[in-house]
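Q: What residues go here?
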């Protein structure tokens, strides 16, 4: 089965949930302007199920180590930054409307895969801070949804995901396994398809589409490079959870461009297991 056939099946699938119109309006509002009217955004979020309460609960979860309880969207912006909050909102929306718990593959361990997403978020957050980025929490949000393509395939084409997992268990890298089974197609392309359907912002599309192929990115290269390194760090952690060994390799060119050293990678790798387990108990995403 090739990429064209897979996209056709995704287009025809009845398994993906229908997207709430309010969700699309919020994404459109965030993506349509550099400076958002937070009062307008807050009003739309109020109409979107439990989104406001879930978002604030996660902001106040303890992970962000805020000195006081945040009670409103403007307060969250004040402490975390506008771009970080906007991306957190989108991550919440995507995780809520396309939850990974409706996946159908038999062999995919969704709990541990969610820990990989958290690991990517945390590693990216730490990397961004080390590299001096002001909007470090934006990278945390990217990590939560960077593998949306895996979720889409798990929901719509579970047999393919099972084939990939079985090859991974034999020592094959995930991307290599996907390319063999889907004739060059990978979860990056599945994620890109879903990004287009949801009209997600271009920076998120770039991360979803190129976190395994960072040197192919044409824009948002810093974001893609950081997420690529973070994904590799977290993948090593995830594979240890599953007792796999597919020899994930860090992209040395990307590390060189970012100025990331082996010592940096080792430091983050050492702290990741504890940070992931802590975050796993702190974060929650309800279905809207």
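A:
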């Amino acid at each position: 089965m090739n990429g064209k056939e897979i996209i056709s099946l995704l287009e025809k699938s009845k398994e993906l949930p229908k997207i709430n119109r309010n969700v699309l309006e919020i994404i459109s509002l965030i993506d349509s302007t550099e400076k958002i009217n937070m009062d307008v955004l807050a009003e739309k979020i109020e109409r979107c199920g439990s989104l406001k309460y879930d978002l604030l609960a996660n902001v106040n979860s303890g992970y962000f180590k805020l000195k006081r309880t945040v009670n409103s969207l403007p307060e969250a912006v004040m402490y975390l930054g506008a771009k970080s909050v906007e991306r957190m909102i989108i991550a919440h929306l995507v995780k809520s409307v396309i939850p990974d718990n409706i996946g159908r593959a038999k062999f995919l361990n969704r709990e541990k895969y969610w820990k990989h997403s958290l690991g990517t978020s945390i590693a990216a957050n730490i990397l961004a801070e080390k590299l001096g980025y002001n909007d470090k929490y934006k990278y945390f949000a990217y990590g939560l949804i960077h593998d949306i393509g895996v979720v889409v395939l798990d929901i719509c084409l579970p047999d393919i995901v099972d084939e990939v997992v079985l090859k991974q268990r034999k020592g094959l890298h995930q991307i290599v396994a996907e390319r063999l089974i889907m004739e060059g197609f990978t979860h990056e392309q599945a994620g890109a398809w879903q990004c287009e359907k949801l009209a997600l912002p271009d920076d998120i599309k770039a991360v979803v589409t190129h976190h395994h192929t960072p040197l192919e990115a044409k824009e948002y290269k810093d974001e893609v490079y950081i997420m690529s390194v973070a994904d590799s760090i977290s993948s090593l952690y995830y594979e240890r959870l599953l007792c796999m060994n597919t020899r994930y390799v860090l992209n040395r060119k990307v590390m060189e461009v970012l100025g990331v050293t082996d010592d940096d990678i080792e430091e983050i790798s050492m702290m990741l297991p504890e940070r992931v387990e802590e975050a796993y108990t702190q974060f929650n995403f309800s279905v809207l």
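A: Context that may help when evaluating the design: The longest helix spans residues 110-130. The mean pLDDT is 92.
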